[in-house]
Amino acid sequence: MNSQTPLERPHQPLLCRGLEQALQAPPAGEENTRTSALLNALLEDALRERASDVHLDPAGDGFRIRFRIDGAMIDTLQLSPAEGQRLVRACKNLAALEPGVARVPGDGRAEFRVSDRPLGVRVAVTPTVSGEKLALRLLRAELTRLSLNQLGLSPSDYDLLRRAVQDARGMILLSGPTGSGKTTTLYALLHEMRHTSRSVVTIEDPVEYVVPGITQIQVNPKQGLTFAEGAKGLLRLDPDVILMGEMRDAASARVAIDVADTGLLYLSSLHARDAVATITALRNFGLQDFEIAASVDLIVAQRLVRRLCVKCRRAGSATTEEVQWLERLGQPVPAETWQAVGCPQCSMTGYYGRTGIFEVWRLNEEETDLVLQHADEHTLRRHLRRSGRASMLDDDLAKVAEGITTLAEMQAVGGLGFYAPSEPPRGTARPRRTATAARSRVRPGAG
Ligand SMILES: [Zn+2]
């Protein structure tokens, strides 16, 4: 049922059945009325199928409608050039964008009422070689408003994080590439702190949504309010906890050290491929080993993978290619793995929702000593593996063994290849969690 192959994108015209029906309705009334009915039907389809984005891609013979569901693009209906252009024009008009054909990328915001509920949509238009491409981002705050126990953390990682939020002084850092769910985790940590008696202030760009009970400030570089400047000002507000949306340069890293030095708790996110690489990123921002060792309390590295749809997933075994891939990484092959199938419940994708895969590292004395001695990534990573800490790869394999996600998803996430052992794996003596051990997890079904 699911026709997904590496070369062919899944193609599911049924996802746009509302729009299809509206297209087939006999023309009645004005053209504008018809266009807004089509647009409404399209957004209803998108909301029903849990799409976060809707793209109208110009193709030689019209416009292809694509939905992004759980992070993956899925092709749906093909529109005629005339119908497609009418929808593009209507969206640009609602978002107050230039009516003519765009020569440079532009974006705006439009407000809709879909199924009797307000829906904010960010409308972006880009000129391409085949014509104007339209991208709609549906702003649905409920997708990111998760609490700490809904992220897919293992019970031990969950406990570690909760305790760190309650008693940490210094720095908690979240690392991962764009779209790895760092912001969702940061907000979940904030929600956790809302119930404590501490004063929490944030400086963000942008403020994605408002959390009651904390003070949030929006970065505004044009007015001189950068992350670094803003955080200095925040200290005057007498906070206990400061959250800076992103640590992006030497100036903001310097502020982070100053904040942590004053005995406050500092939270932020940055780009690094795993927990250990976060130390390298801080060094690259010009921080000294002694500053990092004295300040950094806990690092969370993460990625997002799609969760298998429990209505249609099918048990099976790993393919030859997957087995070879796991062997290259020096990982055991799970006895049983699961495959995505596809059913109406999951928009025929085989997946429903996403979950995080995590590496949570709270630095102990021995590890801060290693940082002080300027240990490189390789040394630190080997130390963590030898002391039995779970990597993102371990967490992912455990989720594969439990039928939460697939090996295919794990491969699609990419960037985990650096866990491959540089020395031959030492058989069963390696101190690590086994992928086949079934473990209970904290509310993994929150998709
Ligand atoms: Zn399904």
Write structural notes for this entry:
By secondary structure, the chain is an alpha/beta fold. It is built from 14 helices and 15 strands. It has a 7-stranded mixed sheet with strand order 9-8-10-11-7-12-15, sandwiched between helices. Strands 3-2-1-6-5-4 form a 6-stranded antiparallel sheet. The protein has a two-stranded antiparallel sheet with strand order 13-14. Helix 2 crosses helix 3, helix 6 runs parallel beside helix 7 and helix 9 packs antiparallel against helix 11. Bound molecules: zinc ion. Zinc ion binds next to loops.
In short:
The protein is of the alpha/beta class and 447 residues long.
How would you describe this structure in keywords?
6-stranded antiparallel beta sheet, binds zinc ion, Beta-Lactamase, Rossmann fold, 447 residues, 15 strands, 25% strand, 7-stranded mixed beta sheet, disordered N terminus, alpha/beta
